[in-house]
Amino acid sequence: MTRQQYQSATGITSTRIALASFGIGTVLLIVQMTYPHFNLLFGGFLFVLTATFVNLIVLANLVYHLCIQHNHRDYYLVKILIVLANIPITIVYLKILFN
Q1: Residue 84 half-sphere exposure, CB side, CA atoms within 13 Å?
Q2: Contact at 8 Å (CB) between 10 and 65?
Q3: pLDDT tens-digit profile of 24-33?
Q4: Looking at 43-57, 63-77, 81-95, which range is the least confident one?
Q5: Do the beta carbons of residue 41 and residue 32 sit within 8 Å?
Q6: Which residue, 37, 87, 24, 23, is CA-closest to 59?
């Protein structure tokens, strides 16, 4: 597999999904903090569940490629860290909302 092929296979998509999850979560947090009467908590909770499920699938795919593509481990490890970065961000956002 060439460098361009494995980058397009999972790397670009995984980064986009992780950034989209972060972006949507941030927008939901800002809207909830700005307009508390909207009560987006239920919708936000559904988003967190959906994003968790999608990110777990992406993570599993990246781990699979990490195990298969031995010569591109560094690339997949970085992509895995990008996806995993959403976990502490979500925890911080939840603490902000519930405090």
Answers
A1: 10
A2: yes
A3: 999 999 999 9
A4: 63-77
A5: yes
A6: 87
Q: Does the pLDDT value for residue 92 go beyond 90?
A: yes
**Which residue's entry shows tokens 């481990």?**
73
Strand residues in the chain grouped as ranges (E): none
Alpha-carbon dihedral 9, 10, 13, 18, rounded to 10 degrees: 180
Question: Could you read off the pLDDT of 65-89 as tens digits, one per residue?
Answer: 889 888 888 889 999 999 999 999 9
Between CA 27 and CA 34 the distance in angstroms is 10
pTM of the model: 0.84
- Report how far apart, in Å, the C-alpha atoms of 19 and of each of 2, 35, 85 are: 25, 24, 10
Alpha carbon distances (Å) from 11 to 2, 4, 63, 73, 78? 13, 10, 12, 12, 9
Biggest CA–CA distance in the chain, Å, is: 52
